[in-house]
Write a structure and sequence with these properties.
With 190 residues, this protein is of the alpha+beta class. It contains 3 helices and 10 strands, in the order αβββββαββββαβ.
Length: 190
């Protein structure tokens, strides 16, 4: 025999779980924008590059400066800096010659000859429907400050976008990765 009460309760619980998952997605994005507000980054300014094919937003108080690119590897480069100089970084578009993960591994090998690392990690991500990688590492210095680095690489066909953030370890706050993710999610490239 089928117990109708148990089936009814099960259907109600499944329905509530679906509703809660939907609300969680909406709440998660609002929570991320709250992190921006708490760090005095209420408004974002849109920037364009590559004749309007590249769009991204940065906090309005930050400064942004495009630089000329040389050669055929880097198609676009723009540096940015927070108003308090705590966060520095850049946005780039590169021509992709081969596999992105292999490119990142080779870049790490070259960089290891010049820098000391701790806490290096690479994670595959999907950002705005595009595959890519999230790199987190700390560059240590024998003299001076160490830097926390968070970099996003997303594939765009035969090109990739790179969004990099660098913060002195002494200035790094727990909510900064959330802020960086919100900023990177504004990236559009066609």
């Amino acid at each position: 025999m089928i117990d109708k009460k148990k089936i009814g309760v099960t259907i109600i619980i499944i329905g509530l779980m679906i509703v809660l998952l939907g609300l969680e997605k909406n709440f998660d994005m609002r929570l991320k924008f709250t992190a921006l507000i708490q760090n005095n980054m209420e408004s974002l300014t849109q920037y364009k590059g590559l004749e309007g094919r590249l769009l991204y937003k940065l906090p309005s108080r930050w400064t942004c400066r495009n630089q000329d690119t040389f050669g055929d590897e880097i198609l676009y480069h723009s540096d940015f800096k927070s108003d308090d100089n705590a966060i520095n970084g850049f946005v780039e578009v590169w021509n992709l010659k081969g596999d992105l993960k292999l490119f990142l591994q080779n870049s790490k090998s070259i960089s290891e000859k010049q820098n000391l690392y701790k806490e290096y990690s690479i994670k595959q991500i999907c950002m705005n429907g595009r595959k890519g990688y999230l790199l987190k590492y700390t560059i240590t210095k024998e003299i001076g400050d160490s830097y926390k680095c968070i970099e996003y690489f997303t594939e765009e066909g035969k090109q990739f976008c790179r969004f990099s953030f660098f913060v002195k370890e002494s200035n790094f706050k727990e909510n900064m990765p959330t802020i960086f993710e919100v900023i990177v999610k504004t990236l559009e490239y066609n």
